[in-house]
């Protein structure tokens, strides 16, 4: 494998650069949006200890997003803050399921958030993130492999946390089981694009940036299969399309408006 | 972030006959600078005052995360997002740490954290006046870090040698983290102060709005103002050292020169340092309004409590799932 040591080297091969930036946008946008949804939960978790743990995870995850946006900045995509705040809906590459609102209401007003959604979503996502980060930790692009290794150090604990919630709630009351199962069913019909790499998947594989889509998907199915008491029989789906290709829902639009509200209030300003 | 709320309507503690010999031994211990631990004998008055102080402190940390949380998803840069996320997480951590200390003290009364949450929702447990205030712009996120946490550091530092060991140790850690919060707040404020016209405008507007709440922060200077004050008991039992007014003066000493050097003003034309008296002269905030605020009649009291209420009700199924044996089987 030819190791690409830095951004300057990566920029010399346009096909390599394109596949690499596409991949990093996906990683950055996934972490960014799930962290945004996590931040909306603050103060609303089932108990204080969970608020402390969840906000710690959310904060780490935003840290990972920042590292990915900074990789993009090095690759010539522009300033990391601009990338996070100014790209349009169509330019976003996160999986659609990750942008789903936490429940009814807004985070500061009548937030009827659903803990079952939080648990299922974060468990599914963190399980996949571990597989993806491990695949990327041997990536041909050295700076990316380094970030993945760094992220894995924290991410292992994130996954352990959500796995614990999954196990507890699936084996608790009838009510809890039903709530979790119904969120698993829902995720099953929407999660597939999170597992995918979009239209540059073949180039990503060719340039040894990450493993194949098939491998990632199978590894995820195998892993969650162990922890889900009753895995759905239906095949995985992407009900709303593929976020990897810039398809998104009104939920992401709402998130973009919120997180860029201050940023947009004075674009000349240094905050 | 926190402070002890001096509320005007606290119920009078019933007089409890103490074992005089034990009481004298206890006073000798704290006067010798010894720390009291959770299982040690302590006067009822001491225990009750501590429960009130620490549960209020803990719940204020938790309620205090809510005003900033309003701006967490909106923080205008990636660095600011990381900063404010770290900060609100710390505040929750402080709340948790303090509630654990309060829980140990409440054990003899058979009270738990559930009871504290219920007390909060039904208005028996108060939270600090500053957290009843609205946050209208990003400048408020900076103001909370800079001046509200700055004030909190002063009142907490005042208790760093508190006679109750578990509280004193919690405060050591909390104060260390609060210093970072104040720096985080100051960095936001500096960026605004050196920024565009719009940024300076929201900064001044924010300070104008927060000023009365900041003066109220340390509580009234004497019981005469609001009907009751626990500061004397707290000083007698070596929980705190300075009075409310001494703390407020120290706060003005530290921050007013900084406020003025940034070209900002406070909405009080009379404010000045009196060299002869060696203290700041300022217009008293409206202490009647203060009483209303801490009785949950402040501008955002209802909405903030509503968030906790929704979280409490909405997650009932999770609590039941975690302790299945208690659900009426």
Automatic annotation (TrEMBL), chain B:
Record-level GO BP terms: phenylacetate catabolic process
Name listed for the protein in its UniProt record: 1,2-phenylacetyl-CoA epoxidase subunit A
Recorded GO MF terms: phenylacetyl-CoA 1,2-epoxidase activity
One Pfam family matching this protein: PaaA_PaaC
Encoding gene (name): paaG
Gene Ontology CC entries for this record: cytosol
């Amino acid at each position: 494998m030819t190791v690409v040591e830095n951004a300057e080297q990566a920029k010399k091969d346009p096909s390599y650069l394109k596949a690499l930036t596409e991949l990093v946008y996906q990683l950055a946008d996934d972490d960014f949006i799930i962290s945004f949804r996590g931040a909306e939960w603050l103060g609303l978790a089932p108990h204080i200890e969970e608020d402390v743990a969840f906000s710690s995870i959310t904060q780490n995850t935003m840290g990972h997003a920042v590292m990915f946006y900074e990789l993009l900045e090095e690759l010539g995509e522009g300033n990391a803050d601009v990338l996070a705040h100014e790209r349009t809906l169509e330019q976003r590459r996160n999986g659609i399921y990750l942008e789903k609102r936490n429940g009814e209401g807004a985070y500061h007003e009548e937030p009827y958030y659903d803990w079952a959604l939080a648990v299922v979503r974060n468990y599914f996502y963190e399980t996949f993130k571990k597989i993806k980060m491990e695949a990327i930790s041997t990536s041909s692009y050295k700076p990316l492999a380094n970030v993945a290794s760094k992220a894995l150090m924290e991410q292992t604990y994130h996954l352990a946390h959500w796995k614990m919630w999954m196990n507890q709630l699936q084996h608790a009351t009838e009510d809890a089981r039903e709530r979790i199962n119904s969120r698993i069913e829902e995720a099953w019909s929407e999660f597939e694009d999170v597992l995918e790499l979009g239209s540059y998947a073949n180039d990503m594989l060719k340039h040894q940036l990450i493993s194949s889509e098939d491998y990632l998907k199978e590894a995820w199915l195998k892993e969650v299969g162990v922890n889900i008491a009753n895995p759905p029989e239906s095949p995985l789906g992407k009900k709303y399309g593929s976020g990897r290709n810039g398809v998104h829902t009104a939920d992401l639009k709402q998130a973009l408006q919120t997180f860029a509200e201050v940023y947009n209030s004075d674009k000349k300003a240094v905050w | 972030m926190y402070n002890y709320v001096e509320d005007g309507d606290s119920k009078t503690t019933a007089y409890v006959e103490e074992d005089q010999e034990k009481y004298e031994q206890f006073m000798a211990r704290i006067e010798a600078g010894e720390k009291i631990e959770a299982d040690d004998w302590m006067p009822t008055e001491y225990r009750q005052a501590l429960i009130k102080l620490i549960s209020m402190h803990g719940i204020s940390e938790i309620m205090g995360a809510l005003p900033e949380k309003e701006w967490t998803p909106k923080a205008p840069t990636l660095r600011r997002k990381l900063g404010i996320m770290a900060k609100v997480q710390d505040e929750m951590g402080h709340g948790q740490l303090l509630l654990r200390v309060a829980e140990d003290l409440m054990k003899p009364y058979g009270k738990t954290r559930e009871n504290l949450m219920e007390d909060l929702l039904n208005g028996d447990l108060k939270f600090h006046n500053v957290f009843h205030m609205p946050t209208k712009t990003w400048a408020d996120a900076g103001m909370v870090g800079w001046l509200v946490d700055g004030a909190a550091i002063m009142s907490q530092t005042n208790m760093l040698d508190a006679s109750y060991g578990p509280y004193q140790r919690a405060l050591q850690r909390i104060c260390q983290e609060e210093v970072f919060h104040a720096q985080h707040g100051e960095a936001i404020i500096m960026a605004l102060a050196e920024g565009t016209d719009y940024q300076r405008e929201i900064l001044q507007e924010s300070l104008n709005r927060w000023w009365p709440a900041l003066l109220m922060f340390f509580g009234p200077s004497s019981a005469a103002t609001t009907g009751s004050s626990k500061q004397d008991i707290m000083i007698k039992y070596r929980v705190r050292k300075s009075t409310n007014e001494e703390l407020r003066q120290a706060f003005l000493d530290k921050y007013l020169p900084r406020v003025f050097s940034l070209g900002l003003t406070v909405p009080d034309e009379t404010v000045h340092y009196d060299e002869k008296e060696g203290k700041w002269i300022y217009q008293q905030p409206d202490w009647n309004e203060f009483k209303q605020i801490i009785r949950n009649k402040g501008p955002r009291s209802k909405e903030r409590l509503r968030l906790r209420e929704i979280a409490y009700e909405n997650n009932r199924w999770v609590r039941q799932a975690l302790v299945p044996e208690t659900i009426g089987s």
